[in-house]
Every structure is written in structure tokens, then in C-alpha cells.
Specification:
Blueprint (H helix, E strand, L loop, with lengths): L2 E2 L6 E3 L6 E4 L6 E2 L2 E2 L6 E4 L5 E2 L2 E2 L4 E5 L6 E2 L2 E2 L6 E5 L5 E4 L1 E4 L5 E2 L1
Antiparallel strand pairs: 1-15, 2-14, 3-6, 4-5, 7-8, 9-12, 10-11, 12-13
């Protein structure tokens, strides 16, 4: 499904409201003056306060599903606004989808 390319300037949160920081692995391909994100790039979450019972279970990272199928950078699929990011806790258990709140809206891909 087509979507806008995500960049390092994309703003997102975990399902519990903690901010996501993106670390792009490349800087040669830009969209709206920011590096395009790849499915292999790190996305870290800091400050998630989610608790199950009495046990802390914060979101720490994101596993991306459904990246671009036609747009690649260094033979790696880019992330799209339609990609699904599952937030994972320290045990790598999914905690819910990442929420995109702001992303560039000039360059699209599929």
C-alpha cells in the first residue's frame, strides 16, 4: 500500500505515550531534508511507564512490518507512513502499535 516515506524527523510515540527516537543508518537519501528511514534502522523508546500488575513492562524498541516493496535504499526497504511498527518490551513481547503523529508529506512510495 502506498504511503509517505518516513524520515529521521518523523515524530512517533509508543501506545502509552512515550516518545520514539529514530537513528538512521544512512544519510545519502533525503526526503524533505531529513534521512529516509530503513526497515533495519533502530527506533528506541525512552520513558514508557507501562506496568502489568506490579511489574514494569516498558516499550523499548520497534519491530517494523510491511515496509516498502518497491522503494529501496542500499537494497533495504524504506519505511512508509503505512508501515506498522510493533512496540516491544524487554522480553521482545509486542505491546501495541507505534503512533505516528508527524511525518513528511512530499515523497511517497510503495
Amino acid at each position: 500500500m502506498p504511503g509517505y516515506l518516513l524520515t529521521s524527523a518523523t515524530q512517533a510515540t509508543c501506545p502509552h505515550g512515550a516518545p520514539v527516537s529514530f537513528v538512521p543508518s544512512q544519510s545519502s537519501v533525503l526526503a524533505d531534508s531529513a534521512p529516509v528511514l530503513l526497515v533495519s534502522d533502530q527506533a528506541t523508546i525512552a520513558g514508557c511507564s507501562f506496568v502489568v500488575g506490579t511489574v514494569a513492562s516498558p516499550c523499548l524498541t520497534i519491530q517494523w512490518l510491511a515496509p516498502a516493496t518497491r522503494v529501496m535504499v542500499t537494497q533495504t526497504p524504506v519505511l512508509l507512513s503505512t508501515s506498522v511498527g510493533l512496540c516491544l518490551n524487554p522480553a521482545a513481547a509486542p505491546q501495541g502499535p507505534a503512533q505516528l503523529s508527524s511525518y513528511q508529506q512530499r515523497v511517497q512510495g510503495t
